[in-house]
Amino acid sequence: MMDARTPALPAWSGEGEQAKWEDRTAIITGAASGIGREASLALSRAGARVVLVDRDKGGLEETRSLVGSGQALVFLADLLEAGVENAIVDEALEKFASPDILVNCAGVFPTRPALDLPVQEWDGVLNLNLRAPFLLSQAVARQIVSTGRSGSIVNIASTAGVVARPRVAHYCASKAALIMLTKVLAIEWAEHNIRVNAVAPGLVETPGVTGSLTTEEDEHEHQQKLAKIPLARSGEPWEIADAVVFLASSAASYVTGHTLFVDGGYSAGHTFRG
Ligand SMILES: NC(=O)c1ccc[n+]([C@@H]2O[C@H](COP(=O)([O-])OP(=O)(O)OC[C@H]3O[C@@H](n4cnc5c(N)ncnc54)[C@H](O)[C@@H]3O)[C@@H](O)[C@H]2O)c1
């Protein structure tokens, strides 16, 4: 755990970039746990105001207290609820300012063989991992366009969007689609100076991941996945958060439509260790 770290990257270092982190308002979904929490803390440490969105009240409050003296706002919401995207943008506008940064991080990753996959579970995964990021991106982008400012959206994808695994047909499909959505929005919104990128984490042992290891098969697959990582370890949430800060910042001012894999080399190919 790296709570006391300062971000590895310089804040708004690009020449000609007028905005400073202190002028920036970031919305982060999934902020109550794991990668979303760490991304929230990293953006806050950089100086941005953060709007913390999640359906887990206790986790949100904990993230809020970890932010310390930074400016943070808690927004308790289920991202599957109709119209929630506009409520989030309205809250940011009312309490802080027009949002400039959006990190779509909330996601679920249940496992089930495709032959047994009920349509409700398929819809639940696709609705949270793909539809909700689209709707919130649209609401935030509309707001950014209305102000004439620049913006940056970072979608949290996954290596599962490019490397197939068994028992996660819905998850893999949702993340592959999120990577493509990232590209389409990047080219459509470039004229509005809104950059859209993705970070694709490899294996990161967050509460969501460790909590999902409920069967022997889950644990076995987890160990197999670990054994396939060229850097021979899982990633830390802050390693994903630093990539988010980079893409959100002016250090990435010429980067859009990109998916940055932060996966210890997992998606690059196989390793034959052991
Ligand atoms: N941890 C990994 O190994 C890994 C790898 C690749 C991609 N990812 C992606 O990173 C993201 C975060 O994963 P994590 O490992 O930190 O998981 P996590 O379970 O620790 O955190 C996910 C957060 O999303 C929130 N959430 C879930 N459903 C929600 C809903 N309907 N409305 C509002 N909030 C909701 C949860 O309450 C939780 O706080 C996900 O999109 C996941 O697919 C994770």
Automatic annotation (TrEMBL):
Coiled coil regions in record: none
Species lineage: Bacteria, Bacillati, Actinomycetota, Rubrobacteria, Rubrobacterales
UniProt keywords, alphabetically: Oxidoreductase
EC category name: oxidoreductase
EC numbers on record: 1.1.1.100
Protein name in the entry: 3-oxoacyl-[acyl-carrier protein] reductase
Organism in which the protein naturally occurs: uncultured Rubrobacteraceae bacterium
Keyword Cytoplasm set for record: no
SUPFAM superfamilies linked: NAD(P)-binding Rossmann-fold domains
